Amino acid sequence: MDLGKYAFDILLAYGLSGILILGLVLQSVLASRAARKRLEEAEK
Amino acid sequence: MSIWEYANPRRFMATSTAVLPWVWTAAAVLCATGLIWGFFFTPEDYRMGYSVKIIYLHVPSAFIAINAWFMMLVASLIWLVRRHHVSALAARAAAPIGLVMTAVALLTGAIWGKPMWGTYWEWDPRLTAFLILGLFYLGYIALWSAIEAADQAADLTSILCLVGTVFAVLSRYAAHFWNQGLHQGASLSLDAEENVADVFWLPLVVSLAGFVLLFIALVLVRTRTEIRRRRIQALAARERLA
After folding, report:
1. How far is CA B21 from each of CA A23, B26, B27, rounded to the nearest angstrom?
2. How many domains does chain B have?
3. pTM here?
4. Is A26's Cβ below 8 Å from some Cβ in B?
5. Which residues form the Cytochrome c assembly protein domain (chain B) (predicted)?
6. Is residue B86 one of the residues assigned to a domain?
7. Cβ–Cβ below 8 Å for B39 and A14
8. ipTM of the predicted structure?
9. Which of B96, B221, B231 is closest, CB to CB, to A32?
């Protein structure tokens, strides 16, 4: 696919956004798992 | 059944457990459809060329960045008026999402602005209001972390949220209030004449719907985490007293 003269700008925008959004999703899921484990241990 | 029953943490946890897989799935499908459709199957714009493809990230992230603050405002008002802890925790849970979406909107806007406007940044009313909104998100998150007493933190952050709402409104309407600056008006509107052309509009709406569902999924997950952390703190406090 030829994105023309804006190829670098478009790929940079998608790359940075992907890193930020996927990072947020990953952090949210990992924090949720960690909190669930800690609560299970605390309730034992 | 009253909506306030969901203010019960147990009820909230049970309901969110049931709906989360569906919300995650729908968010993933719509985000992927909207972004792939927009990226691979739309033509170039006659003025902006292929750089128009950034719209599928820029508009939905800006939409979420602004509306996450309004969601926090509603949750904060519920906390201030009715003292439901789940609403205060939901507001806290939404703030990092709003911050990341603000960063995505600012970054994609800057990257898009360079080829279109000749500059990454301009102290345009809308851009400036958006930057200040991002700073309010940072301040809001910092204030929650700085105060140990949970109810006091919820009170003060709710008041900060009320103040920051001015900039959330300005981020959306600055281009209308001050008819100046580089940023154009809305790309999506209830007024069909303001919308972008259909060929861009359809994948943009799908992408926007995906981002909205992603926001809902993240708020649910992060609120559940906050509820669990609060429960851990309560158990630790009870243990210290025993």
Report:
1. 19, 9, 10
2. 1
3. 0.93
4. no
5. 4-183
6. yes
7. yes
8. 0.95
9. B221
